[in-house]
Amino acid sequence: MKLHKTRIILIFLVILLFGSCSSSRNFLEAKKIKEYPKTEFLPTLENPISKNKNAVYCVTLLYAWNEVRNVLKTEMQVPIELQDTQKDLVLLNNSTSFKDVLDKNEYEVEGITEGNTIKTKAEFNKSLPFEFKLHSFDDELVFDGKKVSSFGVFGEDEEAEKVIKILHYKNDNEFILRLYTEDNLHEIILFKTQENFETLAQMNAKVQEKIDKATDEKYDEKTRWKFHISNKDEVVIPKFSFNIENNFATIEGNKVSSKSPKKDYTITTAWQRTAFILDEKGAKIESEAKVETKSMAVEKPITKHPKKMRFDKPFFVLLKKTNSTTPYFTLFANNAELMLKE
């Protein structure tokens, strides 16, 4: 029986814009990932994190891949088959991290068949400005031995405390902050830690665990000082600005098979572009993915000691729905390569 070979072409486009759309905050010109040797893109939350690189993840690829499975299953009435040696593709196919991370009215997914070509597309966009603009700093933060632009707050600030909430504080090297946006259905989580994690999924589970454990501390007279920004406290967050395009070499070239009828599909292109700006103004996010398959408040407590919550060491940025425990965007900032330099 002659084997029918086909191609799967993945075109993954992600545009992430944090802050307002003023002319002074345009994206940088897109560059290839090879120009960022200390950064990698991860297809899923379950992919391993490199110990010496930044990591960028967005859910859109999972939405697009899921639609490929749906279309192929409808066409062939059978699921696709993968080999255990196709590690990244297996992780992509097995991941459920895309489920319920966005409401159905917040993104669009479509799949169509044109002759022997199957095309799928997933996209979403969301504006997430802060209710109050935080303070922008110069000459204030050093990350990975480099001076970087930053924002945040020094001391007690009524407006800033409506944006910044402390969810967990152990010491100046481990804490979790929540940045509230005008859209109270979405939030930004910042997690500074010295712990090592194998995957972003493992890190996210730890975040939820620490937040849950900190709940009782908020109402304990001895520890509730941790959850208030006092006059001597500091919150300093680096700004980000990058625009990168990347080909997933570990996914391209992989073959996907169906059992009956017997067909082989080859992924010829898996491409992603991500542009990202984060600063004191807030957030706006727009993401698009395409897949083409071809046949062929409590009373303010007394402060025990100043909290210096400076993101000057590796930390994580998570974008998520407030009612979800799974993020739709995650950045592991392990070095200053993606940050805005002074």
**Radius of gyration based on Cα positions:** 22 Å
What does the main sheet amount to? 9 strands, mixed
How many strand elements? 20
N-end to C-end Cα span: 64 Å
H/E order of the elements? Answer: EEEEHEHEEEEEEEHEEEEEEEE
Rounded average pLDDT: 83
Q: Label the structural class.
A: mainly beta
List the quaternary state of the chains.
Answer: single chain
- Strand proportion, as a percent range, falls in 35-45%
Gross geometry: elongated
Number of helices: 3
> How many domains comprise the coordinates?
2
Ranges where pLDDT stays below 50 over 5 or more residues in a row are 14-24
* Overall helicity: 10-25%
Could you characterize what this model shows?
The protein contains 3 helices and 20 strands. Residues 14-24 have low confidence and may be disordered. The longest helix has 17 residues, at 60-76. It has 342 residues and is mostly beta strands. The strands form 3 sheets. Strands 1, 2, 5, 6, 7, 14, 15, 16 and 17 form a 9-stranded mixed beta sheet that branches. Strands 3-4-20-19-12-11-10 form a 7-stranded mixed beta sheet. It has 2 domains: 4-17 and 29-127 and 243-294, no CATH class; 129-239 and 301-329, Alpha-1-antitrypsin, domain 1 (Roll), CATH 2.30.39. Helices cover 12% and strands 43% of the residues.
Comma- or semicolon-separated keywords:
Alpha-1-antitrypsin, domain 1, single chain, 12% helix, 342 residues, 2 domains, seven-stranded mixed sheet, mainly beta
Quick structural summary:
By secondary structure, this protein is mostly beta strands. It contains three helices and 20 strands.
